[in-house]
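fyi for ur records
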Amino acid sequence: MPSIAEKVCLECGEKIVGRTDKRFCSDSCRNMYHYHANNSSINYVRNVVNTLKRNRRILSELNNGPEGKTRVHREKLLDNGFSFMYHTNTHRTKAGNTYVFCFEQGYLELGENWFMLVRRDEYLGRSGDLKKDAAE
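which gave:
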């Protein structure tokens, strides 16, 4: 009778007993294996989403001017933890200005490290959030 190679668990290396197509010695090893395999990509997405939410919150807190517009210096944004690398979308006007947005909160670079913070309420209206807030 030919010798069958022992199968070992992909996670811990222990000998596998049971079905011939088994890859793990236990449910906990199977779960840990898949957790480690997927964790880095999940953490990356989680970190990007958290950065986008933080950027939105910072813009929202600093944008307290009339009609949803405030002028702010770059240092104030950076001091609050704002990351210019992450945003959700951009909007280019007919005049050639490019607004950068984190959800409905955005900014326009004015030059000399000054930014105009803006808010686009119509973004909220598209999702129905603005109507719910107004009704409450």
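Residues 73 and 114 are 5 Å apart (CA to CA). thats all i got for now
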